[in-house]
Amino acid sequence: MKDKKKVWRKIMIPISIMVAIIVMLFTVWVIISPGTIRTYKGEKSLSEKFVMDIDGSPNGFFINSINTDNPVLLLVSSGPGTDDYVFTDKYKDMKLEEDFTVVYWDYRSMGIAYDKDYDTEQIALENLLNDTYEVTQYLKGRFSKDKIYIMGFSGGSHIALRVAKQHPEDYYAYIGMAQAVTDSDEQTELMYDFMKEVFTSRNDKASLKKLEECVDKPNDGSIQMKADWADYVYLLHKAGGGTIKDKTEFEGVVLPITFCKCYTVSEKINYVKAMKMYRTTPLAKELSDFDYRTEIPKLSIPVYFISGEYDYNCPWELVKDYEKILEAPDKGFYLIPDAAHSPLWENPERTCEILRQIKEKNTDE
Predict the structure, then answer these.
(1) Fewer Cβ neighbours under 10 Å: the N or C end of the chain?
(2) Which residues 6+ apart lie within 8 Å of 53 measured at CB?
(3) Tell me: the pLDDT tens digits for 178-187?
């Protein structure tokens, strides 16, 4: 009997210690996840985080402003389906709210607006374009503006660019940060060439082997992706041309989500659920086989593109080419040094200065 008790203690003590550690880590995670965002002093400052119904669907908003008299900038989140306020939470030097009332929008059932029971068939391009129009009208009315600025970031540029073409009367200018241009073999080749050069310079034979396994090379000399996009982008992060320069996907995306203060624990879990869910929606299928150089060759408002010099998620060479082709009243392409896919947060000083210049050039308030 004593031997059985000894065996039981040997089993239970390690289990108890493990449970205690898990409980302690979870408690710490809850403490560092209050769900709070930046706040400011001043009568005209604003700091809000809320969910609002638009056309029967939950939409989330983070709004930061030092002075709400400033122009409104609607940031259409990346992914699509990935909330970007997490980067504003992590990279404290990004202070765009000093020049704009910045609105980070979590569109239907993503980010803080995630609803596990939401009908994902409703997440379609036409619905999101309508939502963007409604959000724009809400912001114009709330802040008493005739027009606002709209900025599409990465996957969000699909939505923002199309809305800017449909409703130019609502916007001072369109800004494409890490602009999506095409999903053709041309993009695959630019990504491949960048990764091959980096892995070769590192003598990283294992990554070179994985890279070659991800592509086909037909006799016509082109390079075609045969792997899943996520596997290809995983290698891109390893090469330093992903979301954040020289950071893996774990370092650049997972850790900021895990340790940010702007989401509660449940919101962080829902963030990931929504991000995965968006990959299976009608929208995901609709945003394929595109080339905006031929589909949207002209806009009737000023257009400005901002890319990181190491961005090969949305290769900057393609963005520069699009800017040359595009017809617009005013346009510009800006290549941000020391940045990959997220120049607003990686090099905030330079990127915010460009956005300030755009504001001064186009705002007539």
Answers:
(1) N
(2) 59
(3) 999 998 889 9
